[in-house]
Write a structure and sequence with these properties.
alpha+beta, Immunoglobulin-like, eight-stranded mixed β-sheet, globular
Length: about 850
């Protein structure tokens, strides 16, 4: 229930009143904030908090209404002082806007707006929220996108970038942190008041504070002070972050040509966090299993994830914090740039991670091609609009930025970014401001390219026609076979690699029309239309050219290019250009690739095809086929790590043993997984860190209730975030129906935090029977699941019950969630996307099932 009231005053409802001049979810521009002071009384042992705020504002035109944002709090003593005084009444709208009303007209000028307020601590990991870790309560904040308004009255839009001053009174037993250093403390009885320095101009979503019985360790080697902060008993796991943070920050300062812009850099490991991390200026928060790890036992995947996420959040300190979007329609660029920058820094500092093989475009191009997908730069009204396609924004945006950097050159791109940061420090900008800076630095029309990729969905299909030395490119929108997509064109930098014998050449062309022709240096034996895998497009060769490319791929293409080639082959099936049997044959050829990551990619795409085409008639053939392919790699690399083997082999092996266990029902692999899991629970640190996550899932799936109870017991007491996450994922694989239901019920207890539910749910889709049980459970426990999930995650629930190629499951999903639309309209767009996705899958299965069966029968 959302409410705001003024004590001793009549609450005025303004719904439908002519004095409301703002858009439904956007604040009126009659008033703007100049600075804000917030005082809070916070005690983690309580369920509620209180506070007061003073906001310096400017009234820009005559009005009786001042609008700000609010959710969940109750306000009293609302006073406007300055050129005139007014006791104000208030009405909170269901849009998150609060109308503060003065009986007389307020003249333009400078004023102070004061409010006292009380509110409950949130328990769904948004706003100012409470969580309990090992029996100890803590308070954290998560304000992006629009949840600062849950903690205090505020102009909660990114365009209002102002200084904030935070004061927090808490029990003296608690430590308190905020964006800036403490300037003074005062002890009164058993409470201490902490006064923090005023921030530099920030949007409200970057304000942060935390209260609890924390531990901390200083970070040395940075130009500003910094700490890693953890809940009790975990500080020894902070050393990897302490070591890596200075190098990451230094690399970013060098790239931007500007020092880190804030007074300190604290990093908080949060046990209950709905996202991976949050870039709050000076007080960055991370899900603890990302920031905390045992460097001696953690595998390289874990270390790479930690470095990459830290680099992402620290890149935001310049792009997003120092320079901030004017409105949420450019959030895509905030996240895309940080993802792009993180990939660059991670590869620079740790080339051994081979993070350049993590192609973000491969993860999202199928989604982007659907008709229901919106552009990543689109009109934004509310948080539901922001969350719609946010994952696409990260991956597509960073891939497009990589393509543009490749086109204009690394140095020009860097110089454009540096000038953009210097020109707009502590200001708000729009995407065009960056395009203009990059265009000026490079002498190329960057906006002309980017607008076609950012302001429309999907991407081009580049058809390549080679006649002698003449190469003709033509473009059209990529679409799934049978989809009636609108005609679209792009301005697209196309990079081409071609060869003859030992000679290999790369060239590029800007395709800014429907068709374009260029002359090659020689008549090629083969051609690859995505040199360095930098293009955000798909390509189409004729049958002969495709065969020639595949024949030369393993010797002439880089590992990055081969990985992109596998993804492109999968897209050719989606577009109806090759058969499913053809795709299976292509994927099978890469199982013995020299690079383990390419083997892993080929196996993953085989498993995707299996999910689409498996049925009762071919289930045994699929298991035999995929197990045989995994066995090829196992015979080459072995079931256990060999001394001195490549880490890339260690990264591949979990995929192989998962196939042998789940598909091949290999008794030896299953037995070893159970033994390793028991040793892991007992604290054996010699366990293979790459295998144990998969072995735990195998052990739970093929194990008995006794083993599951042992995992649950360890899950509830471990202080190692990596171990806790491994155990959560595994517990979602309980196979016995009674055990599966018991685990799902367990996920709704207070043993799991709000964001943890997704880990248990992620394992429920393995096997048709388990999917069915899971769907029934979601429907039966809908209200409890909805109450447990973070609010923004509720909209995704239909994806758990209706995905795949199952029209009956989709129909039931539609019936169930359509009945909820009046109270939960966020399901509307989820259902539209889900229906398109499932129907695409059904059409593909209908079209290609015979081709798959023919291929499998030939084996």
């Amino acid at each position: 229930m959302y409410r705001v009231m003024a004590t001793g005053l009549v609450t005025v409802s303004l719904c439908g009143s002519g004095v409301i001049q703002a858009e439904e979810f956007v604040l009126s521009k009659q008033t703007k904030p100049v600075s804000q002071a917030v005082s809070l009384a916070l005690d983690p042992s309580k369920e509620n908090f209180s506070g007061s705020t003073d906001i310096k504002i400017q009234v820009l035109e005559k009005t009786r209404v001042i609008q700000l944002n609010g959710v969940d709090y109750t306000a009293t003593n609302i006073q406007l002082t300055g050129q005139q005084a007014c006791e104000m009444t208030a009405k909170m709208l269901d849009t998150g806007i609060v109308n503060l009303v003065c009986k007389q007209e307020i003249k333009p000028g400078s004023y102070n707006l004061h409010l006292d307020f009380t509110a409950p601590f949130n328990r769904q990991s948004v706003g100012l929220y409470k969580t309990v870790d090992a029996g100890v309560p803590y308070l954290f904040t998560q304000f992006e996108m629009s949840d600062a308004r849950r903690s205090f009255p505020v102009f909660d839009e990114p365009g209002y970038k102002i200084p904030f001053q935070i004061t927090i009174t808490a029990p003296s037993t608690e430590k308190v942190y905020a964006n800036t250093p403490v300037v003074s403390t005062k002890v009164e009885g058993d409470k201490t008041t902490h006064v923090f320095a005023q921030t530099k101009p920030l949007p409200s979503y970057l304000v942060a504070y935390t209260v609890g019985q924390f531990e901390e360790v200083a970070i040395e080697g940075m130009k500003i002070p910094g700490r890693v902060i953890t809940t009790k008993g975990k500080i020894e796991l902070a050393q990897y972050a302490v070591k890596e943070m200075p190098a990451i920050l230094g690399a970013l300062e060098t790239y931007f040509g500007v020092d880190y812009p804030y007074q300190k850099l604290d990093s908080v490991a949060v046990p209950d966090f709905p996202f991976g991390a949050m870039e709050n200026a000076g007080l960055v928060t991370y899900r603890e299993d990302i920031l905390l790890l045992d460097a001696n036992s953690a595998n390289q995947n874990t270390k790479q994830s930690s470095v990459s996420v830290v680099a992402h959040e620290l890149a935001h300190q310049w792009y997003g914090n120092l320079v901030t979007m004017e409105w949420w329609n450019d959030l895509w660029l905030n996240e895309a740039f940080a993802s792009w920058m993180a990939a660059k820094v991670t590869h620079q500092l740790h080339p051994e991670f081979e993070s350049d093989l993590s192609l973000s475009k491969n993860r999202v191009m199928s989604l982007d091609a659907r008709l229901s997908t919106k552009p990543i730069r689109k009109p934004i009204r509310n948080e539901a609009d922001i969350m719609d396609g946010l994952g696409l924004a990260y991956s597509k945006g960073s891939a497009v930025l990589s393509m543009v950097e490749n086109w204009i050159g690394e140095e020009s791109f860097k110089q454009g970014i540096r000038q953009y940061i210097k020109d707009n420090a502590f200001k708000n900008t729009q995407a065009d401001d960056l395009w203009n800076a990059l265009s000026k630095a490079s002498g190329k029309d960057v906006g002309k390219v980017l607008s076609t990729f950012i302001e429309q969905s999907s991407y081009p299909l580049i058809t390549v026609d080679v006649k002698g030395k003449s190469l003709t490119l033509s473009q059209q929108r990529f679409a799934f076979e049978g989809s009636k997509a609108p005609a679209q064109t792009w301005v697209v930098p196309v990079s081409i690699k071609y060869g003859k014998g030992d000679k290999v050449i790369s060239t590029s062309i800007l395709l800014d029309s429907d068709t374009k022709t260029l002359e090659l240096e020689f008549t090629p034996d083969w051609i690859y239309p995505d040199a360095d895998a930098m293009g955000y497009y798909r390509w189409l060769l004729d049958d002969k050219q495709l065969a020639n490319l595949l024949a030369n791929a393993k010797t002439k293409l880089t590992a990055r290019e081969r990985k992109a080639l596998i993804s492109s082959a999968d897209a050719l099936l989606d577009g109806g250009f090759i058969s499913a049997g053809d795709l299976l044959a292509i994927l099978a050829e890469f199982i013995d690739d020299a690079h383990p990551q390419i083997v892993s990619s080929a196996l993953n795409y085989l498993k995707i095809q299996k999910m689409t085409f498996i049925d009762a008639s071919n289930e045994a053939q699929w298991a035999k086929f995929i197990s045989a392919k995994a066995r090829v790699a196992i015979d080459k690399y072995g079931l256990v790590a060999a001394p001195g083997e490549s880490i890339e082999i260690s990264k591949l092996r979990p995929s192989l043993i998962a196939i042998l266990a789940f598909e091949g029902k290999d008794k030896a692999v299953i037995s070893e997984a159970k033994s390793a899991s028991l040793a892991y629970l007992a604290g054996d640190k010699s366990i293979d860190a790459y295998l144990i996550g998969t072995q735990l899932k195998i052990a739970v799936y093929f194990g008995d209730n006794s083993l599951i109870q042992k995992l649950k017991k360890e899950f509830e007491v471990t202080k190692n975030p990596q171990k806790r996450t491994n155990l959560m994922y595994a517990l979602g694989y309980a196979a016995d129906p009674k055990q599966q239901k018991a685990m799902l019920d367990y996920s709704l207890t207070d043993k799991l935090n709000s964001p943890d539910l997704k880990y248990i749910m992620s394992g429920q889709t393995y096997t048709h029977a388990r999917k069915s049980i899971f769907r029934d459970w979601v429907y039966s426990n809908y209200e409890a699941v909805k109450a447990k999930l973070p609010p923004f995650a509720v909209a995704m629930l239909p994806n758990y019950t209706g995905t795949g190629c199952d029209l009956k499951a989709l129909d039931r999903t539609n019936i169930f969630f359509e009945s909820k639309l009046e109270s939960s309209p966020e399901f509307t767009r989820t259902l539209a996307k889900l229906n398109e996705k499932v129907n695409i899958c059904v059409k593909l299965k209908t079209r290609e099932q015979a081709s798959v069966n023919t291929y499998l029968q030939k084996l």
